[in-house]
Write a structure and sequence with these properties.
With 605 residues, this protein is of the alpha/beta class. It is 38% helix and 13% strand. The protein has an eight-stranded mixed sheet with strand order 7-8-12-11-10-9-13-14. Strands 2-1-3-4 form a four-stranded parallel sheet, with helices on both faces. Strand 13 and strand 14 form a beta hairpin. It is globular and about 75 Å long.
Amino acid sequence: MQVHPTLAKVTQRIEQRSAASRASYLAHIDAAQKPGPYRAGLGCANAAHAYAAMPSADKLVLHQERQPNLGIVSAYNDMLSAHQPYEHYPDTIRASARAAGATAQVACGVPAMCDGITQGEDGMGLSLFSRDVIAMATAVGLSHNVFDAVLLLGICDKIVPGLFMGALQFGHLPAVFLPAGPMTSGISNDDKSKVRQQFAQGLVDRDTLMRAEQSAYHGAGTCTFYGTANSNQMLMEIMGLQLPGSSFVNPGTPLRLALTQAGVQRAVALAASGQGMGHQINAKVVANGIVGLLATGGSTNHSLHLVAMARSAGIIMNWEDFSELSACVPLLARVYPNGSADVNHFHAAGGMGFLISQLLSAGLLHADVHTVMGPSLQHYVQEPWLNNGELAWRPVPVQSGDENVLRPYDQPFSADGGLRLLTGNLGRAIVKVSAVKTEHRVVRAPAVVVDSQQALQQLFKDGLLDKDFVAVVRQQGPQANGMPELHKLTPILGVLQDRGFKVALVTDGRMSGASGKVPAAIHVTPEAVNQGAIGKVQNGDMVSLDCEAQTLTLEISQAELDVRAPLAQLPDTAWGSGQGLFALFRRHAATAEEGASPLQFAMPD
């Protein structure tokens, strides 16, 4: 089917905008390309260091300098439930590589922090920039230049974007992501959310809340709500970087093991073909990623991450690209917080294969892209299964298994993708309306101005927020304090909305994929410390957040706005939990719309 005209137009605009930077990037990775194994010709002492601990049989293969050597970059730790299954992946990978006549080594481990643990704590100030640390750590591991393909083991919020960005520095090499899958379903996300709101109001005690949380987060695997971690998995699949149908298969199952083994085999084949990740990732692939986010109601964090990821390949996009595509991409999935189902329900209803088949049929994806399975996205309208214990592929179902969770393109939950660009005299911002009811999408109310989520929480505890208001939470941008997520505000704002008050959030910080039912203008750019107008808002000023008209307005005259002094830039005092080490990152961070990365100044011109 012909590509939808809006998708074609946005993709062409991205290509034109990126022409110079993309050409420079490709020239850099092409210069690094070699015709044979990358270890060939390595100095004897260098090679001896690289292979010293390898088994004798592997050393023999490596010495022959004919077969590929796979580099494993792992984000394993056993504190993150999503990453705990990776503990034994290297053994599986090595065995699968040997079976294919190749070898594999762990190139490096990268840090992996859990935003669910650090929410509201000092450590959250490291969260966004951990992405860039992971990118640099990935580059360090691959810098030994003895690998012919890369296997990337990561799932959660900043880890996949960081691995992606780091691997693109070695874009002459093929790369395959190996997911580990979501934990099995526990307590429903709706029930968990209700207990959180009850706790915020003092209606239940900490033990009750803890029991609910432990029933939700109860085992190995990714958290089952559709936040940034599972949005990452969707992205890697729809962008062709991991195997079809592999995103949401539970850990510890025979199918999960078979998919891991098959992923290794694909990496060996790609190493022989010479197809590098840098050429695979182009404007069409990135546009497909945006479409996937919109069609599933994915995390707003990817209005930062996907931008930074694309820029690492010389591809320049902005929020207008997201917003314009959102107007024509229908919402086909309802997964919490956009619905009551979790990702296991989504997978059972037809999952990624059904979603991709529907979007392709509607002309809303580019089919003519390179993937780890071959030169077409049509490879992704099949699903994996075990046929007498052997991995096999079959066509995806032609009908959804549950239209309360996943629908065909001509019967969407919503005609648009729900991610919108807001503009006005307060700057540019992103709002996600997938879970916001129509009656809550326009809020005009006096501002309550605070400089931290803790300050707003205290006002709530003191009973001072039982009214219509727009919470303006400023000094939360990448250059101010590392742009932490403000999830602690979700329960209290939800309670106030349930009480019948008109409430909204405006912030230069983040809310991610769990922003939920309260309208939230996030990532406001310019941020307050960059003399953005959000720093000029005063308590009681009338603020209008209109998701339908896509405007964000401080209702004062331009003359008054011009004479108001910008917010004085506070000294950078962030220190606790290692924040002091990230001052350089904060100082050099790009704007939110540019991806908020401090590494972009180091990309090829």
